[in-house]
Amino acid sequence: MGVLWGIAARGAAVSPPGGYASTTQAQVLLVGAAHVVDLAAPLRRVLGSRVLDGVAIELDPERAEALLAPGGAPGRRAGGQLFARLWGLLQRRLGAEIGGGVPGAEMQAAAAVARERELPLFLIDDPIRETLRALVVSMPVKERVNLLLGAIVGLVLPARVVERELDRYVASPEEYTGELRHVSPTMARVLLDDRNEHMAHRILELRTRGYGRLAVVVGDAHLVGLASALRRRGVPVETVPFRSLRELTGSAPNAG
Predict the structure, then answer these.
(1) H-helix segments, the chain
(2) Residue ranges of the domains in the chain?
(3) CA 147: distance to chain centroid?
(4) If 0-12 CB within 10 Å is exposed, 13-18 middle and 19+ buried, where does residue 103 land?
(5) What is the pLDDT of residues 14-23, one digit of tens each?
(6) N or C: which end of the chain has fewer CB within 10 A?
(7) Residue 139 per-residue DSSP state
(8) Over the stretch 132-183, which tens digit does the pLDDT of each residue have?
(9) Cα–Cα dist 47/107, whole Å
(10) Cβ atoms within 10 Å of 2's Cβ, excluding its own
(11) Please, what's the b/e burial string for 222-250 (b: 16 or more CB within 10 A of its CB; e: otherwise)?
(12) φ/ψ of residue 243, rounded to 5
């Protein structure tokens, strides 16, 4: 895409540097992060100890240009769907109040590790505009209204309430995802299930090109579904959930 060093848009091949012999028998390392929590330091600790052929991240070219290019920052582009603009505002607010860093810090850290180690960086997510278009088109009116109201409410909720919900997610991510499927099955399908399948397909393609030892950084809500999609394709997986990364920061979840 011509924005970053050797970046590979949506899985395009980039030859790995010498010293990183590929092996498709290796496990794919899936790392779950929270987009509003600064996990750059523990992420570096996890990736720094691994021999890797490449790094893949949950971004598409448009978001990567906004987030990873020199001078880039989340929300740099003003266009896009109303949902996207509201979500961008919400992420920036949560990142400032409870995350301890800039939204997308985990993707920036993963990209920095790839650059420092001269590893190819792969963008494996669907284009954000296509995803949002599919969401809005397929979403019933009731779910659409709930999504819009939820984004607006999230902008005014006290930070302590949001942090308590984050702790609740850490304690039981499956329960939280189950609630999402109950409240908005369309959102769960479009934002989680469909994207998991597409990302798994692109990871499998990378492995067939010789990038067997991949570290893949995605939002934690994708972790279980993406691991399942990869295993169905015969790909061995190791997972490091958000909970484990958070513990590496030295701040375990609050009891309440």
Answers:
(1) 40-48, 61-68, 82-94, 105-116, 128-138, 141-156, 159-171, 173-183, 185-187, 195-208, 223-232, 242-248
(2) 7-248
(3) 20
(4) buried
(5) 444 444 445 6
(6) C
(7) S
(8) 888 878 888 877 776 666 655 554 444 554 556 556 656 666 777 787 788 7
(9) 12
(10) 7
(11) bbbbbbebbeeeebebebbbbeebbeeee
(12) -55, -45
Secondary structure of 59-120 in the HEC alphabet? CCHHHHHHHHCCCCCCCCCCCCCHHHHHHHHHHHHHHHHHHCCCCCHHHHHHHHHHHHCCCC
In this prediction the pTM is 0.75
CA–CA gap between residue 56 and residue 120 (Å, rounded): 8
Question: How far apart, in whole angstroms, are the C-alpha atoms of residue 57 and residue 52?
Answer: 14
CA distance linking residue 14 with residue 16, whole number of Å: 6
17-51 burial, b at 16+ Cβ within 10 Å, e below that, comes to: eeebebebebebbbbbbbbbbbbbebbbebbeeee
Q: In whole angstroms, how far apart are CA 197 and each of 33, 100, 141, 148?
A: 19, 31, 26, 26
Position 169 scores a pLDDT of: 59
> CB–CB of 75/88 below 8 Å?
yes
